[in-house]
Design goal:
The chain is an all-alpha fold. The chain has 2 domains: 129 residues, Cytochrome Bc1 Complex, Chain D, domain 2, CATH 1.10.760; 109 residues, Cytochrome Bc1 Complex, Chain D, domain 2, CATH 1.10.760. Helices cover 36% and strands 3% of the residues. It has 10 helices and 4 strands. The strands form 2 sheets. A two-stranded antiparallel sheet has the order 1-2. Strand 3 and strand 4 form a beta hairpin. The longest helix has 28 residues. The protein is globular, with a radius of gyration of 22 Å. The chain binds heme C (2 copies). One heme C binds next to helix 8 and helix 9.
Length: 318
C-alpha cells in the first residue's frame, strides 16, 4: 500500500514537471517563427487594379488597420478582439520604412497574405486575416493599393505597438494553427456572368462565412464548406464594447434562415444595413456600401444554393 502511494506521488510529480516545463517552454518561446518567403514575385500595378485593391482593402483590411486619428492604415488597439487572445494591436501598414511596411518586398507581402508568415518569419496569429482562396489578380490588386499614392497608405510614423498574445494564443499557435500552404496552381476569378460562382467567390473571400458560421473554433479555413454550421449563424463576434453579438443564419432555411428573403431585401440589408425600412444591423456587421448591386445579388444567388440549416438565432442572446 505504502509502495503504491509512493508510486502515485512520484507519477504525479513527474506529470507536474512535464506540464509546467511544457507551459513555460510555450510561454517563453511565444508565437513561433518559420522559414521566410522564398518565392519570386513582382507586383504589377495599373490604375484599375489600384482602385480594385482599394475597394477590397476597405472591406477586408481597414476595419482592423484604419486609425481614425490619422485617416491612414497606421494601426490601432483592437478593442473588439476577444480578450482571451491577449492585447491586440493591428500593425501600421502604411509605406513608412521605419514604422510601416515600406521595407516589405512584394513577395513578402504576398507570402504574408497567403500563408500568415510575416517578413520577420513570425506567424501572424488568427487575429490577422489570411487569404488562401483569393484570386491572384485580387491579391495583386491589394498589394498595388498598398504601394499606391492613395492618401490612406502614405507613410505615417505612428509606431506599431507589439501585440501581447495570451498564453492561449501562444499555445494555439504552437499546436493548432500553422501557416497555410501556398497555392500550387494559379487562382483565377470566376467569370462574373456565372452569378452563383461569382457570389461564392465573394462570400468566401470577403470573409462572410467565418462570422456567419456556427463556431469560430470549428472553421475549416482551407475547405470552408466543411466548417461547422457553414453559414448557419451562431458565432458571437464582439462589438467595440467587447460584448458578443450573435451572427445571423444566412442559409436558405425558411423559418430560421433567409429562405423567405427577396433579393431586394438582402441587397438593402447588406449594402445599407436597412431591413424592412429600418436600420437593423449592429456592429460588427458593417454595411458593405462598396459592393455593386450585382455583387450583392450574386452573394444572394450563391446563398440560395447552399444546404439549409435549421438554427434559430435569438438576436438578443446571450
Ligand atoms: C481582424 C483584424 C485584421 C484584419 C481584417 C487584417 N489585419 Fe493585418 N494585422 C492585424 C494584426 C492584429 C496584426 C499584427 C499581427 C502580429 O502582431 O503578429 C496585423 C499585421 C499585418 C501586417 C504585418 C506587419 C508587420 O509588422 O510585419 C500586414 C502587412 C498586414 N497586417 C496587412 C493586412 C492586409 C493587407 C489586410 C487586408 C487584406 C489585413 N492586414 C487585414 C489585424 C488584421
Ligand atoms: C465581423 C463579422 C461579420 C462579417 C465579416 C459579416 N457579418 Fe453579416 N452579420 C454579422 C452579425 C453579428 C450580424 C447580426 C447583426 C445584428 O443582429 O444586429 C450580421 C447580420 C447580417 C445580415 C442580416 C441578417 C438578418 O437576419 O437580419 C446579413 C444579410 C448579413 N449579415 C450578410 C453578410 C454578408 C453577405 C457578409 C459578407 C459580405 C457578412 N454578413 C459579413 C457579422 C458579420
Amino acid at each position: 500500500m505504502k509502495k503504491m502511494l509512493r508510486y502515485l506521488v512520484v507519477t504525479m510529480a513527474v506529470v507536474l514537471v512535464v506540464v509546467v516545463s511544457g507551459a513555460s517552454f510555450i510561454h517563453f518561446k511565444g508565437v513561433p517563427f518559420y522559414d521566410k518567403a522564398k518565392l519570386v514575385y513582382r507586383n504589377s500595378s495599373t490604375p484599375a487594379n489600384i482602385e480594385r485593391g482599394k475597394k477590397l482593402s476597405m472591406m477586408l483590411c481597414s476595419n482592423c488597420h484604419l486609425n481614425v486619428n490619422t485617416g491612414r492604415l497606421s494601426g490601432k488597439r483592437m478593442s473588439d478582439a476577444p480578450p482571451e487572445f491577449g492585447v491586440v494591436y493591428s500593425a501600421n501598414i502604411t509605406q513608412s520604412k521605419e514604422n510601416g511596411i515600406g521595407n516589405y518586398s512584394d513577395a513578402e507581402l504576398l507570402y504574408l497574405l497567403r500563408t500568415g508568415v510575416k517578413k520577420n518569419g513570425q506567424y501572424a496569429p488568427p487575429y490577422m486575416a489570411k487569404l488562401p482562396h483569393m484570386s491572384d489578380s485580387d491579391i495583386n490588386a491589394i498589394i498595388s493599393f498598398l504601394r499606391s499614392d492613395d492618401p490612406m497608405v502614405q507613410a505615417d510614423e505612428t509606431p506599431t505597438k507589439p501585440c501581447e498574445p495570451s498564453f492561449l494564443t501562444k499555445f494555439l499557435c504552437n499546436t493548432a494553427f500553422k501557416p497555410l500552404p501556398l497555392p500550387t496552381s494559379p487562382i483565377v476569378m470566376p467569370d462574373s456572368s456565372d452569378k452563383v460562382a461569382f457570389g461564392k467567390y465573394l462570400a468566401l473571400n470577403l470573409d462572410c462565412w467565418t462570422c456567419h458560421s456556427g463556431d469560430f473554433t470549428k472553421l475549416d479555413i482551407m475547405n470552408p464548406e466543411n466548417s461547422y454550421h457553414f453559414f448557419g449563424g451562431g458565432n458571437q463576434p464582439l462589438n467595440l464594447e467587447g460584448q458578443p453579438v450573435v451572427t445571423s443564419n444566412l442559409t436558405p432555411h425558411k423559418e430560421t434562415g433567409i429562405g423567405l428573403w427577396s433579393e431586394e431585401k438582402f441587397v438593402k440589408a447588406l449594402k445599407y444595413g436597412i431591413v424592412d425600412g429600418h436600420p437593423a444591423l449592429r456592429y460588427p456587421m458593417v454595411p458593405y456600401t462598396k459592393l455593386t448591386d450585382y455583387e450583392a445579388a450574386a452573394i444572394y444567388a450563391y446563398l440560395r444554393t447552399i444546404p439549409a440549416i435549421e438554427n434559430k438565432i435569438n438576436k438578443n442572446q446571450p
